[in-house]
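Lecture notes, part 5. Sequence design as translation. It can be helpful to think of inverse folding as translation between two languages: the language of shapes and the language of residues. The source text, in C-alpha cells, appears below.
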C-alpha cells in the first residue's frame, strides 16, 4: 500500500472521468498535490484498468490529470496523480492554497505599547 505524500484538503468538486469514449461524472471529496479521494460510479470502480484520465472542474479552470487507482472501499476510490501538465499543476496549487488560506483563523491586530 502506498503512503500519502501530501496532506489532503476536504472538498466537494465535480470530476469528469474518461474511460475510452465513455465519460462519467463523479465527486472529489479530498484533494492534495499528489492524489485524491473520489466517489466513483460503479462502471469505474468495477473496471480492471487502474488508470483513468480525469478533469477536475475547479472555479479557476479545468485541471487535467492521469490517475492511478490505489485503493477501493465501497464507493470511494483513492487515486494517485501520475501525470499533470504545468498549467493544471498551477491551477491545482492555487486552488489548494486558497482552500488552506480560507481555513486559517482571522488575524488579530497587535498594538504596540508605548515605551
Amino acid at each position: 500500500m502506498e503512503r500519502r505524500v501530501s496532506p489532503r484538503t476536504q472538498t466537494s468538486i465535480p470530476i469528469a472521468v474518461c474511460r475510452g469514449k465513455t465519460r462519467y461524472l463523479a465527486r472529489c471529496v479530498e484533494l492534495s498535490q499528489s492524489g485524491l479521494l473520489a466517489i466513483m460510479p460503479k462502471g469505474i470502480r468495477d473496471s480492471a484498468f487502474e488508470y483513468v484520465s480525469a478533469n477536475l472542474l475547479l472555479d479557476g479552470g479545468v485541471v487535467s490529470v492521469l490517475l492511478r487507482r490505489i485503493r477501493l472501499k465501497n464507493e470511494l476510490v483513492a487515486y494517485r496523480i501520475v501525470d499533470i501538465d504545468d498549467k493544471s499543476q498551477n491551477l491545482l496549487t492555487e486552488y489548494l492554497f486558497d482552500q488552506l488560506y480560507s481555513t486559517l483563523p482571522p488575524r488579530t491586530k497587535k498594538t504596540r505599547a508605548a515605551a
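The translated text above is only one of many valid answers, since several sequences can fold into similar shapes. The CA atoms of residues 26 and 50 lie 16 Å apart.
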